[in-house]
Amino acid sequence: MSIEKIWVVVEIADGNPISSSLELLTQARAMAGTVEALSWGPDAAKAAGEVGSFGATTLYDVGDIGDALPGVPVAAAVKALVEAGNRPDVILIPTTYDGRDIAGRLSAMLDLPVITNVVGLSEEGDEVRSEHGLFGGAKVAVARFTAQRPWIFVVRAKSFAAEASGGGAADVMPAPVPELGATNAAKIDARHVEEQSGPKLDEADVVVSGGRGLGSAENYAMIEELAKLLKGAAGASRAIVDAGWVPYSHQVGQTGKTVKPTLYIACGISGATQHLVGMKGSKNIVAINKDQDAPIFSVADLGIVGDVHKVVPKLIEALKARG
Amino acid sequence: MNVVVCVKQIPDPAAPQALDPDTKTLVREGKLILDDSDAYGVEMGLQLAEQAGGGEVTLVSMAPGGETSGLRTALAMGAAKAILVSDDALKGSDALATAKVLAKAVERAQPDLVIAATESTDGYTGTTPVQMAELLGMPSVTFAKKVAVSDGTVRVERQTEAGYDDVECPLPAVVTVTAGVVEPRYPSFKGIMAAKSKPVDQLTVADLGIDAGQVGLGGAGQEVTQVADAEARAGGEIVVDEGDAHEQVVRFLEQLKLV
Known about the structure:
The complex is a heterodimer.
Chain A: E1 5-9, E2 12-13, E3 16-17, H1 19-31, E4 34-39, H2 48-53, E5 58-61, H3 71-83, E6 90-94, H4 97-110, E7 114-118, E8 120-124, E9 127-134, E10 139-145, E11 151-155, E12 171-174, E13 187-193, E14 206-210, H5 220-229, E15 233-236, H6 238-242, E16 263-267, H7 273-279, E17 284-289, E18 302-305, H8 308-322
Parallel strand pairs in A: 1-4, 1-6, 4-5, 5-12, 6-11, 7-11, 14-15, 14-16, 16-17, 17-18
Antiparallel strand pairs in A: 2-3, 8-9, 9-10
Helix pairs in contact in A: 3-4, 5-8
Chain B: E1 3-6, E2 9-11, E3 32-34, H1 36-51, E4 57-62, H2 69-77, E5 81-85, H3 95-109, E6 113-117, H4 128-136, E7 140-150, E8 153-159, E9 163-170, E10 173-177, H5 189-195, E11 200-203, H6 216-219, E12 222-229, E13 237-240, H7 245-255
Helix pairs in contact in B: 2-5, 3-4
């Protein structure tokens, strides 16, 4: 049985489909004849034009879910479609906070497994093979489902390039949420947007990250200063996020954001597998670390064996002097 | 308030990791330790039970070979007891099968609140707690960076792409915590001694009423077909700082036309 139909879960932020969802629509188009999108929220139907231009012919609109967390209602709406006989071969979900919730709920509801942390997908005969980075990306594993369809894959951001196909607007079809019980009881009381100056971490052209080698939370200020001078974003290793020096939203790595900037500068970061997974795809990497055996140097285009407390302030001064 | 904290015992991440050549699953032999990510959940559970002025923390874990090393660490921190599911039939279980096992074990403890990490350090599938919540018929709030409980309701600051949401959820519920949500305490000497005699209820798949064919490698609905070395990134230039290495960085930035 070949791959005929793929559904892509399209998450909407600030009124528009997020780029990870557009990446998945692009990849779905390369793998199946029919690509359909599923989305939710008050702006879902408005995305029909954009998902259509990325190849979706139908947009299933779950509707406004109010103040509920998306995991349960969106998964329940998908389940209702599937049980009504509308079975896709594959369901692609972006690796986001809500995407992971939807995938987990849907897997248990359908009693079907889920494959997560996907960084590549290919069709091989009647099967889909997924690629995964192992041990910090030193190895690549290929996985496949042996269970029945639909096969649910949760795919990391930037695994594919998003390219529009120029299709017309998708037909909007309602995908109502069935009656739900206690599982849907979590409600959002208030939403807080943390003010951020400069570009977003996962969209910035330059990312400057700090790690344990900074020695203390106060020294993160020089990471932010350097990032600002280069019109980039400030990132962090898991070690200093766990230590409470910087918020989780700055974390680059397996547990945090995947970044692929033109330039990544790692300051005082040893390069644990956890971190490498999230930044190895950067086009150029500069590492500054006092331990010359640090694994970060194995991926660096330019490695400086030195003390971040000396090198980074001098770098900042030199850049300021240039104006 | 009774809290269950799901904890994973994993091979020491600092030690070299290996894959089983046949099953291509992670080798989980020898001594296992408490996953660092779970220490935050244990600490959160202990604090919430203390604040509620009663109740205890029960650990739930699934591990091969009756492994309790990691559980003893969490018991030494202050958890009261543990339920350990250990069965050869579980080797190679996928996330959904793991969730089925954990859900059955959690049900035994009849908790008001279930806490887990957002994902494990070794497998990092990241879906098990939510799959388990669905099987338990409970709501879930993931990626909690702050957790408080009062009047039968858990209030969570949940991490989002843009910042965070205040989320309210009636108990019982499953909450997954991010690292850094609290500062895990170090087990005291007294705690370590006491942990040796705390009860660990060891169960098999059959004890939980689960069909062995549903779990393990045979019950897994997915498999790894191949593992290969990734394309190596060509090594770059390494410079030892003699006081002027920052100039090299500036030249590199110039080449990239970033300055």
